[in-house]
Amino acid sequence: MSIIRKSLLSMAVASVVAAPLMASAEGFGTISANAALTSDYYFRGISQTNNDGALQGGFDWSHESGVYAGVWASNVAFGDTNLETDTYAGFANEIGDFGYDVGVIKYNYNDTSSHDDPVEWYVNGSYSYFSAGFAYSPSWFGSHDSSKYIYLGFDYDELPMGLALSASVGKSFGSAYEVSGGSDYDYIDYKLGVSKDFFGVNWDLSYVGNDLSSKECNAYGYAASKGNCDDRVILTVSKSIDDVTSSSAGADSPISANIALVSDYYFRGISQTDNDGAIQGGFDWSHESGVYAGVWASNVSFGSTNLETDVYAGFANEIGDFGYDVGLIKYNYNDTSAHDDPIEWYINGSYSFFSAGFAYSPSWFGSHDSSKYIHLGFDYDELPMGLALSASVGKSFGSAYEVSGGTDYDYIDYKLGVSKDIMGLSWDVSYVGNDLSSKECSAYGYAASKGNCDDRFILSVSKGF
User: Fold this and answer.
1) 30 or 407, greater pLDDT
2) What is the rounded CA–CA span in Å between residue 214 and residue 191?
3) Which listed residue, of 177, 211, 418, 464, carries a Cα 20 to 30 Å from 43's Cα?
4) For residue 7, what pLDDT band results from cuts at 50, 70 and 90?
């Protein structure tokens, strides 16, 4: 979703300015956050990521009256489109033992025209362990025809050993599913899953699928050859926090989560998303000894590669007032060969408001040559009005940056940012860039024509929990 188009970016900045007034108003409501890593993003029985993994999550605001609104995002795999960001609003309440929910959702995708980003209205009801719902869109994606969806669900959380069972069946129908020649490609999707809370996170294993044939799958716009319409087993690890202002929530859990929506994913001064938005986040495990390990992910824009998933481990501790951190990180990208996913070793230190670090990789991405990175940082969180200042400068160098002809494309990147915690979320505005020319940017493998190496402002909203 192009959540980070200019108009919405302006709205987000305006909300930062207005937030202190809203937060001070009694009964403003509650903001929650959620994050998930899943082995496949399926929507109504069909894979949206070519049977590959996904990072998902978002933020929700709810009021005691029943009014709510939110934003949710996931990486997707539709050619140049790699990010879906859904915005929604509605009203949910109860009448006796019956719960109901009515609302509207806007599906947004980066790198598509607005008429391909449909609006859908929905009404859902629940009673005991059962639920049902109906959704309607007057113009469903590229078809510009109406779509309807009905579903029935069952959720039972009283199984032995703390297990919970979920099952659902749904049907997609309407003029959007009538293809040329008069064929009707209405279809049914289904899901059967079991989940359990373990180590402070929820683990879900589900079997999902649909009744589409390969021909129907292709006619519907998905690639049957990639298994997008095949039945599959999906593993999802997720965590949520009901109130982002509650700092003690989940404090006893050995695993923490983090989620962020950013206007651009930059890495060492260079955009990884063609100056478009990103969803980022992951999970971390830490031990009181200082040992830690984790996983972090973000959508990216490298042709058919749309997801970066980094795994890392290390040891962090203190000697007096000096903090140190040593470890390694493995960068992983979907749809690439293993030798293009490098390993990097790092050592970082901090003292007072200052930090410094060094990283080394023996084989940096497709170059198969060594890379080195040094950086200096400054973080000061004692500014007026609860503002925090951050600044950093780094240098990338080594044989990986020496191109044919002996030219040396070492480069420097920099960042200057200000952040503030508002309503339990961290809001950050930063100016980032580098000293690469357009020629050097292109030689380094990035598209200078898309502004990937240009200086830029970046807005991020994040939460760790």
Assistant:
1) 30
2) 19
3) 464
4) very low
pLDDT digits (tens, 9 = 90+) for 307-357: 999 999 999 999 999 999 999 999 999 877 665 789 999 999 999 999 999
- How crowded is residue 11: how many other Cβ atoms within 10 Å of its Cβ? 10
**What's the rounded Cα separation, in Å, for the pair 50 and 223?**
8
| Range(s) of the chain covered by CATH 2.40.160.40 | 6-240, 255-464
**In the CATH scheme, what is the code of domain 6-240?**
2.40.160.40
252-290 b/e (C-beta count within 10 Å ≥ 16 → b): eeebbbbbbbbbbbbebbbbbbbbbbbbbbbbbbeeeee
Residue 2's CB is within 10 A of a number of other CB atoms, namely 20
Q: Which residues pair with 411 in a beta bridge?
A: 396
Please identify which residue in the block is written with the tokens 């000061």.
380
The helix/strand/coil state of 12 is: helix
Record the tokens describing residue 290, joined without a space. Answer: 């200082």
Return the number of other C-beta atoms located less than 10 Å from residue 339's C-beta: 10
Give the pLDDT mean for 42-70. Answer: 96
What whole-number distance in Å separates Cα of residue 30 and Cα of residue 62?
Answer: 5
Q: Which residues contact 181 (CB under 8 A, 6 or more apart)?
A: none
Rounded to 5 degrees, φ, ψ at 136 are: -140, 135
Q: Is it the case that residue 264 has pLDDT exceeding 80? A: yes
- CB atoms closer than 10 angstroms to residue 305: 16
Instruction: Look up the CATH architecture of domain 255-464.
Output: Beta Barrel (2.40)
